[in-house]
Amino acid sequence: GENVEQHPSTLSVQEGDSAVIKCTYSDSASNYFPWYKQELGKRPQLIIDIRSNVGEKKDQRIAVTLNKTAKHFSLHITETQPEDSAVYFCAATRPSNTDKLIFGTGTRLQVFP
Amino acid sequence: GAVVSQHPSRVICKSGTSVKIECRSLDFQATTMFWYRQFPKQSLMLMATSNEGSKATYEQGVEKDKFLINHASLTLSTLTVTSAHPEDSSFYICSAGRGGYEQYFGPGTRLTVT
Fold first, then answer.
1. Which residues of A fall within a CB distance of 8 Å from B49?
2. How do residues B21-56 score in pLDDT, each as one tens digit?
3. Would you give the DSSP letter of residue A97?
């Protein structure tokens, strides 16, 4: 089955710096890769996603890149702000009747003012 | 649009009792609902997938007789934790899909078993 690895587990940056989180997946049939932000005790919130027919997608300060050959995808946050501090999860899914998501292990991002 | 609610948000129960958690899609019909468990500082682990009117599909290692899932309608799925034990204390989150890739998450239920 699918396995998703995520690095780093923790990331501390200064406000204004960029943050990059990387994920690798094992199932070459996976074709949808969302990223979620989760604050303590809250639900995961979708912040950006990418499909396998696209190599890069950007939404203001957030971007995601996908390398299908290498089976990895990355989240890039530029001009970080303290309110970006949270746990970020990547996920992957393959086309199937269930469309179930397999989550990465999470990255705790701390942005210091 | 695509709002999912969960009830209760927090519940404390005694060891050996059963607890029911509800997950509702408020403004859409959910073809599939998913139940996750999240322990502190860990990732979301999928427990089971349910489709309306059919039996749930459980992930490996999840006891179907302990975690009863009912998906009686296109807007409601319930998870019942039977004979709860302290090790079942966790954050339970549901999500709902409506046919596409995206899943819409509920706010979660914090279960504490004493």
1. 98, 100
2. 999 999 999 989 999 999 999 999 999 999 888 889
3. S
Q: What per-residue confidence (pLDDT) applies to A98?
A: 62
Inter-residue contact A104 to A4 (CB < 8 Å)? yes
The answer to whether the CB of B52 falls within 8 A of the CB of B69 is: no
Q: Please report, for residues B37, B90, B105, the alpha-carbon distance to residue B24 in angstroms, rounded to integers and kept in the order given.
A: 17, 20, 10
Nearest CA in chain A to B107: A43
Tell me which residues of chain A, numbers 4 to 63, contact chain B at a CB-CB cutoff of 8 Å.
Answer: 32, 34, 41-46, 49, 51
Closest-CA residue of chain B to A95: B101
What are the tens digits of pLDDT across the range B49-105? 998 888 899 999 999 999 999 988 899 999 999 999 999 999 999 999 887 788 999
3-state SS, residue B100: coil
Which regions of B1-114 does DSSP assign to beta strands (E)?
A: 4-7, 10-13, 19-25, 32-38, 45-51, 57-58, 67-73, 76-81, 90-97, 103-105, 109-113
